[in-house]
Design brief:
The chain is of the alpha+beta class and about 170 residues long. The chain has helices at about 25-30, 65-75, 95-105, 110, 115-120, 130-140; strands spanning about 1-5, 15, 60, 85, 150, 155-160. The longest helix is centred in the middle third of the chain and has 12 residues, at about 65-75.
């Protein structure tokens, strides 16, 4: 087994296997992906060589919100480039809101901003409104959704405080 240092990998070591054919250090740069380099997150014989897989991360973002900007900056400082959904321009579908509520473990009112004028104008404080009606209201009036929300495949967190999202990464 041969270990090579990749000058473009910021000091990380790539594990490669040496077969009967000749191998030289620059062959990784001639092809997009050298056939003998392991890019997966699979556990290698030496655990310090593990290259983690990146999770797909989505953020429901409002650029005018300071907490949302701070959360996005925090993700980027951890080398995570999330998919950004500017939810005021492109509201999430009702099914997506319901899925995120399940991931958060919250009821719809707990994800709503009750201090917004749309909340009072639509009389959403009415306790007779069911879950589906509240989710539909969040879809129609996305300003009601608490922000930012960071979502992975199986977890979600509201970024208040921004450091709370680090729990799911």
């Amino acid at each position: 087994m041969q270990y090579l240092s990749n000058e473009f990998g910021n000091g990380r070591f790539w594990q490669c296997w040496r077969f009967n054919s000749a191998w030289h250090a620059n062959s990784a740069f001639h092809n997009r992906q050298a056939p003998r380099l392991r890019y997966s997150g699979a556990v290698s014989p030496t655990s310090w060589l593990r290259i983690p897989r990146m999770k797909k991360v989505t953020i429901w973002h409002n650029a005018r919100c300071s907490k949302s900007r701070e959360t996005l900056d925090l993700l980027r400082s951890h080398n995570i480039e999330p998919e950004i959904l500017e939810y005021l321009q492109t509201p999430p579908a009702e099914a997506e809101i319901a899925r995120v509520l399940a991931l958060l473990g919250l009821e719809p009112r707990e994800l709503m901003r009750s201090n917004e004028s749309a909340y009072h104008e639509q009389k959403l404080a009415d306790t007779s409104l069911d879950r589906q009606a509240l989710i539909a209201a969040m879809h129609r009036y996305p300003i009601l959704i608490q922000r930012p929300v960071v979502i992975t495949a199986d977890k979600a967190r509201i970024g208040r405080p921004p450091e709370a999202v680090l729990e799911i990464l």
